[in-house]
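Structure first, sequence second, as always.
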Protein backbone atom coordinates (compact mmCIF):
# COMPACT_ATOMS: atom_id res chain seq x y z
CA UNK A 1 0.00 0.00 0.00
CA UNK A 2 1.43 3.37 -1.01
CA UNK A 3 1.83 5.98 1.73
CA UNK A 4 -0.89 8.58 1.91
CA UNK A 5 -0.18 12.20 1.09
CA UNK A 6 -0.11 14.73 3.92
CA UNK A 7 -3.47 16.29 4.73
CA UNK A 8 -3.91 19.93 3.92
CA UNK A 9 -5.89 22.30 6.10
CA UNK A 10 -6.61 24.56 3.11
CA UNK A 11 -6.54 24.15 -0.64
CA UNK A 12 -3.33 25.31 -2.25
CA UNK A 13 -3.79 26.87 -5.71
CA UNK A 14 -2.30 24.95 -8.63
CA UNK A 15 -0.04 27.89 -9.51
CA UNK A 16 1.45 27.80 -6.01
CA UNK A 17 1.92 24.02 -6.18
CA UNK A 18 3.83 24.49 -9.44
CA UNK A 19 6.21 26.93 -7.73
CA UNK A 20 6.85 24.87 -4.59
CA UNK A 21 9.36 22.51 -6.27
CA UNK A 22 11.30 25.57 -7.46
CA UNK A 23 11.42 26.99 -3.93
CA UNK A 24 12.43 23.56 -2.66
CA UNK A 25 15.35 23.32 -5.07
CA UNK A 26 16.57 26.82 -4.16
CA UNK A 27 16.28 26.12 -0.44
CA UNK A 28 18.21 22.85 -0.81
CA UNK A 29 21.03 24.83 -2.40
CA UNK A 30 20.89 27.48 0.34
CA UNK A 31 20.94 24.81 3.04
CA UNK A 32 23.96 23.27 1.35
CA UNK A 33 25.67 26.64 1.65
CA UNK A 34 24.85 26.69 5.39
CA UNK A 35 22.48 29.63 4.94
CA UNK A 36 20.24 29.80 8.02
CA UNK A 37 17.66 32.38 6.94
CA UNK A 38 16.45 33.86 3.67
CA UNK A 39 14.27 36.87 3.00
CA UNK A 40 11.23 36.75 0.75
CA UNK A 41 12.98 39.27 -1.50
CA UNK A 42 16.02 37.05 -1.93
CA UNK A 43 13.94 33.93 -2.47
CA UNK A 44 11.85 35.83 -5.01
CA UNK A 45 14.96 36.97 -6.84
CA UNK A 46 16.30 33.43 -7.07
CA UNK A 47 12.91 32.06 -8.16
CA UNK A 48 12.20 34.77 -10.72
CA UNK A 49 8.95 35.93 -9.09
CA UNK A 50 8.00 38.89 -6.88
CA UNK A 51 8.34 38.90 -3.12
CA UNK A 52 4.61 39.31 -2.52
CA UNK A 53 3.97 36.10 -4.44
CA UNK A 54 6.58 34.25 -2.37
CA UNK A 55 5.00 35.42 0.88
CA UNK A 56 1.54 34.44 -0.35
CA UNK A 57 2.74 31.02 -1.52
CA UNK A 58 4.48 30.23 1.76
CA UNK A 59 1.52 31.45 3.79
CA UNK A 60 -0.43 28.45 2.49
CA UNK A 61 2.08 26.31 4.39
CA UNK A 62 1.39 28.21 7.61
CA UNK A 63 4.76 29.94 7.48
CA UNK A 64 4.90 33.71 7.55
CA UNK A 65 8.55 34.35 8.32
CA UNK A 66 9.89 36.89 10.80
CA UNK A 67 9.99 40.59 10.00
CA UNK A 68 13.57 41.74 9.54
CA UNK A 69 14.86 38.15 9.60
CA UNK A 70 13.01 36.25 6.90
CA UNK A 71 12.38 32.52 6.75
CA UNK A 72 14.35 29.82 8.52
CA UNK A 73 15.73 27.81 5.62
CA UNK A 74 15.65 24.36 7.23
CA UNK A 75 12.14 24.83 8.59
CA UNK A 76 10.56 26.10 5.39
CA UNK A 77 12.44 23.43 3.44
CA UNK A 78 10.84 20.78 5.66
CA UNK A 79 7.38 22.35 5.30
CA UNK A 80 7.62 22.38 1.51
CA UNK A 81 8.97 18.81 1.43
CA UNK A 82 6.11 17.71 3.67
CA UNK A 83 3.50 19.44 1.51
CA UNK A 84 4.97 17.97 -1.68
CA UNK A 85 4.98 14.50 -0.15
CA UNK A 86 8.76 14.30 -0.31
CA UNK A 87 8.95 12.88 3.21
CA UNK A 88 7.80 9.58 1.63
CA UNK A 89 9.27 7.45 -1.13
CA UNK A 90 7.07 7.08 -4.19
CA UNK A 91 7.94 3.96 -6.26
CA UNK A 92 8.11 4.64 -10.00
CA UNK A 93 7.57 2.43 -13.04
CA UNK A 94 8.94 3.48 -16.44
CA UNK A 95 6.89 2.29 -19.40
CA UNK A 96 9.08 2.14 -22.46
CA UNK A 97 12.71 0.98 -22.45
CA UNK A 98 13.83 2.79 -25.58
CA UNK A 99 16.36 5.61 -25.65
CA UNK A 100 14.28 8.02 -23.56
CA UNK A 101 13.21 5.37 -21.06
CA UNK A 102 16.82 4.25 -20.61
CA UNK A 103 17.99 7.82 -20.14
CA UNK A 104 15.34 8.40 -17.46
CA UNK A 105 16.16 5.13 -15.72
CA UNK A 106 19.84 6.04 -15.63
CA UNK A 107 19.17 9.40 -13.99
CA UNK A 108 20.27 8.97 -10.38
CA UNK A 109 18.41 12.08 -9.28
CA UNK A 110 15.06 10.28 -9.12
CA UNK A 111 16.15 7.90 -6.40
CA UNK A 112 18.00 10.61 -4.52
CA UNK A 113 14.81 12.67 -4.38
CA UNK A 114 12.55 9.88 -3.17
CA UNK A 115 11.38 8.43 -6.48
CA UNK A 116 13.06 5.00 -6.78
CA UNK A 117 12.66 3.20 -10.10
CA UNK A 118 11.22 -0.15 -9.07
CA UNK A 119 10.05 -1.43 -12.45
CA UNK A 120 10.71 -0.91 -16.16
CA UNK A 121 8.24 -2.40 -18.62
CA UNK A 122 8.12 -2.83 -22.38
CA UNK A 123 6.59 -5.15 -24.98
CA UNK A 124 9.65 -5.68 -27.21
CA UNK A 125 10.85 -9.30 -26.78
CA UNK A 126 14.41 -8.19 -27.61
CA UNK A 127 14.42 -5.80 -24.65
CA UNK A 128 12.50 -7.84 -22.08
CA UNK A 129 14.89 -9.60 -19.73
CA UNK A 130 17.68 -7.06 -20.11
CA UNK A 131 18.75 -4.87 -17.21
CA UNK A 132 18.86 -1.10 -16.94
CA UNK A 133 20.59 0.30 -13.86
CA UNK A 134 20.05 -2.97 -12.04
CA UNK A 135 16.32 -3.17 -12.85
CA UNK A 136 15.18 -6.00 -15.11
CA UNK A 137 12.88 -4.99 -17.95
CA UNK A 138 9.65 -6.99 -17.75
CA UNK A 139 6.62 -7.25 -20.00
CA UNK A 140 3.95 -4.61 -19.56
CA UNK A 141 1.33 -7.31 -19.02
CA UNK A 142 3.28 -8.73 -16.08
CA UNK A 143 2.95 -5.49 -14.13
CA UNK A 144 -0.63 -6.39 -13.25
CA UNK A 145 0.40 -9.83 -11.99
CA UNK A 146 3.43 -9.06 -9.83
CA UNK A 147 3.34 -8.84 -6.06
CA UNK A 148 6.94 -7.66 -5.77
CA UNK A 149 6.44 -3.99 -6.54
CA UNK A 150 3.63 -1.52 -6.09
CA UNK A 151 4.57 1.47 -8.23
CA UNK A 152 2.72 4.66 -7.43
CA UNK A 153 3.89 6.87 -10.31
CA UNK A 154 4.09 5.80 -13.94
CA UNK A 155 6.41 7.50 -16.43
CA UNK A 156 5.29 6.97 -20.02
CA UNK A 157 8.19 7.04 -22.50
CA UNK A 158 6.59 5.20 -25.41
CA UNK A 159 5.74 6.06 -29.03
CA UNK A 160 2.63 8.22 -29.37
CA UNK A 161 0.52 5.53 -31.03
CA UNK A 162 0.60 3.23 -27.99
CA UNK A 163 0.65 5.86 -25.23
CA UNK A 164 -3.05 5.69 -24.36
CA UNK A 165 -3.08 1.88 -24.22
CA UNK A 166 -0.01 1.94 -21.97
CA UNK A 167 -1.56 4.55 -19.68
CA UNK A 168 -4.72 2.43 -19.42
CA UNK A 169 -2.66 -0.63 -18.48
CA UNK A 170 -0.69 1.29 -15.84
CA UNK A 171 -3.89 2.56 -14.26
CA UNK A 172 -5.31 -0.98 -14.27
CA UNK A 173 -2.16 -2.11 -12.44
CA UNK A 174 -2.80 0.39 -9.65
CA UNK A 175 -0.52 3.22 -10.74
CA UNK A 176 -2.13 6.34 -9.31
CA UNK A 177 -0.25 9.18 -11.04
CA UNK A 178 1.12 9.55 -14.57
CA UNK A 179 3.96 11.59 -16.03
CA UNK A 180 3.64 11.49 -19.81
CA UNK A 181 6.67 12.03 -22.04
CA UNK A 182 4.98 10.55 -25.11
CA UNK A 183 4.08 13.09 -27.82
CA UNK A 184 0.39 12.32 -27.51
CA UNK A 185 -2.63 13.50 -25.59
CA UNK A 186 -3.83 10.85 -23.16
CA UNK A 187 -6.74 10.66 -20.75
CA UNK A 188 -6.88 9.24 -17.24
CA UNK A 189 -9.59 8.78 -14.62
CA UNK A 190 -10.46 11.88 -12.60
CA UNK A 191 -8.67 10.53 -9.52
CA UNK A 192 -5.34 10.03 -11.34
CA UNK A 193 -3.14 13.14 -11.61
CA UNK A 194 -1.58 13.57 -15.05
CA UNK A 195 1.39 15.74 -16.04
CA UNK A 196 2.79 16.05 -19.55
CA UNK A 197 6.38 16.85 -20.50
CA UNK A 198 6.38 18.09 -24.10
CA UNK A 199 9.96 18.79 -25.19
CA UNK A 200 8.87 19.98 -28.64
CA UNK A 201 6.54 22.52 -27.05
CA UNK A 202 9.34 23.84 -24.84
CA UNK A 203 11.60 24.18 -27.88
CA UNK A 204 8.88 26.09 -29.72
CA UNK A 205 8.61 28.52 -26.82
CA UNK A 206 12.38 29.02 -26.88
CA UNK A 207 12.13 29.51 -30.64
CA UNK A 208 9.63 32.33 -30.04
CA UNK A 209 12.12 34.25 -27.89
CA UNK A 210 15.10 33.35 -30.06
CA UNK A 211 13.37 34.65 -33.19
CA UNK A 212 12.77 38.00 -31.52
CA UNK A 213 16.26 38.20 -30.10
CA UNK A 214 17.84 37.83 -33.52
CA UNK A 215 15.20 39.89 -35.32
CA UNK A 216 13.51 36.94 -36.95
CA UNK A 217 9.88 36.30 -37.69
CA UNK A 218 7.50 38.62 -35.88
CA UNK A 219 3.73 38.71 -35.65
CA UNK A 220 3.50 40.60 -38.96
CA UNK A 221 6.02 38.51 -40.86
CA UNK A 222 5.03 36.08 -43.57
CA UNK A 223 5.64 32.56 -42.22
CA UNK A 224 8.03 30.31 -44.10
CA UNK A 225 6.57 27.93 -46.64
CA UNK A 226 5.97 24.40 -45.31
Amino acid sequence: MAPSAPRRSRRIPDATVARLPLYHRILVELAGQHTETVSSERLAELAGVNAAKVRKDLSYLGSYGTRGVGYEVEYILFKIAQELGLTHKWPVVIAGAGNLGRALANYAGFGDRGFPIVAIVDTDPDIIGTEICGVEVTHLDDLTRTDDVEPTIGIVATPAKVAQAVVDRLVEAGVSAILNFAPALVTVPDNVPLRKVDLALELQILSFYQARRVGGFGSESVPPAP
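Margin note: The radius of gyration is 21 Å.
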